[in-house]
Sequence to fold (298 residues):
Amino acid sequence: MSNISVDTSNQRVAADKSSKTFCIIGDPVEHSLSPLMHNAAFKYLNLNYSYIAFKVKVNELKESVESLRNINAAGFNVTIPHKVEITRYVDRLSDEASLAGAVNTVSNENGIFVGYNTDIYGLMAPIEERLSDFDGIEILILGAGGASRAAVVGLSKKKGIKSVFVVNRDEEKLSKVIELGSTLGLNCIPMEYSDHKKLSQISSQCKLIINTTSVGLKNEKSLLSSESIHNESIVFDIIYKPITTDLLECAKSAHARVIFGYEMLLNQGYKSFEIWTGMKAPREVMRKALLGIFGEPT
Ligand code: ATR
Fold:
C-alpha cells in the first residue's frame, strides 16, 4: 500500500519506498523521452520507481500485455501503433478512453489494468494556451490513429467549430474517425489522401492544423508545404523528435505559429504521472528534463 504525504507545495515528499516499474510500449520507441521525463519526476519526489521502454511490434501486443500482467507492472504508456488495439487487452476503460476508443496510459489498479487517455489533455492544453475562441474556425487533422481520435474527442468539447477536415492513407481508419467526430457533434469531413491540390487549398484556410501521424519521425517531408499554410494559422506537430519537423519548418516559413510536439508529451505525461502516483506532477522538473535534451526551442 502507498503511504505518501505531500507538502502543500508538493516539493518535499515522504515517499513510498516500495519499488514499482513503469514502461512505455510501442514501435518505434527508441526515440521516446518518456523514460527520461518520468524518471526525473520519480527521482525528484524520492520515489523508488523506474520507467523503461520496450519495443513491441504490431503482432506482439497481446502477449506483451500478458507479460506485463505476469510481472505486475505498475503501469505503462502505449504509443504508435498500439493506441487503438490496446483497448482490447485492458480490463476497463476510463470514460474518455472509451469515448476515444484509444488508450495511451494503463494503470495497474490492484491487478486490474485500467486504460486511460491522457493524450486528449496533452493535445488540448497547448492548443488552449494559444486559442480561446473556436467559433467559426476550420481545422485540419493529418492522420486517423489513436492520437487523431484523441484530438477529435478534445475538439468536440469546444463550441462553434465550423469544420474538422481529416486526411489519412488508410480509408477505413479515416471513416471511423469521421464517424467518431460526427457522433460527438463535429462537422467532420474526410479528405482524399492523394488529392494534393484540394488538401493544399483546405489547409490554407484552416486556422489550426494538427499532425497526428508518425510522418516526420524519420525526417520525412510533410504532406503539407509552406504554401499551404496561412500565416495566421497554428500548426501543431505531435512528433517531438526531431523537435522541429519538416511540417514545423514549413509553418515557420509561412510565418504561422507552431506548437512543438514536446508540449503534448509533457502534458500527457503530467496526467499519466498523476494517475499512477496519485500525486501532483512536478511539472517544472519534467519540463527541465526534456528541455535539457532539446535546448530551448525557437
Ligand atoms: P496509434 O493509433 O498508436 O497512434 P497508428 O494507428 O499506427 O498508431 O497511427 C499512426 C498514424 O500515422 C496513422 O494515421 C497512419 O496512417 P495509416 O492509418 O494510413 O497507416 C499514419 N502514418 C504512419 N506512417 C505514415 C506514412 N508513411 N504516411 C502517411 N501516414 C502515415
Notes: The mean pLDDT is 94. The chain has ten helices and 14 strands. The domain at 120-259 is CATH 3.40.50.720 (Rossmann fold).
